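Proteins fold. Shown next:

***
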Amino acid sequence: MKTGVTTPSRRITADVDSRTPSDAAWRSVSSSSSKTPLEKLTEDELQSWLASVNLSNVMTKLTEHSVTGEVLAICDEVDELQELGISKLHAKLLFKRIADVKANGSYVEIPSPSITGQFFP
């Protein structure tokens, strides 16, 4: 969309960046949470989801092995998660969370970051 400012000598126009609900960064700022298919999670969304289900400690192992939401979506056994170096109990818990997501249509609710006096350019 174009907006314009008229000055006595000339008209200045500029493009205004339009955002769509599919833009992950915009989604996270514009609402309190969003739902994203597990297999489509970005690394940041995956990290936010893991933190929201008290499993942020497994993110390091997932990152080391380049595990994405798509990879988690095809996990069929706890052993697959343990092969990544995740402890047995955390692997069981993560597997349960993945099963819960699959049972609810494979959509993950991503909480928005809290905005507390921060400036985002």
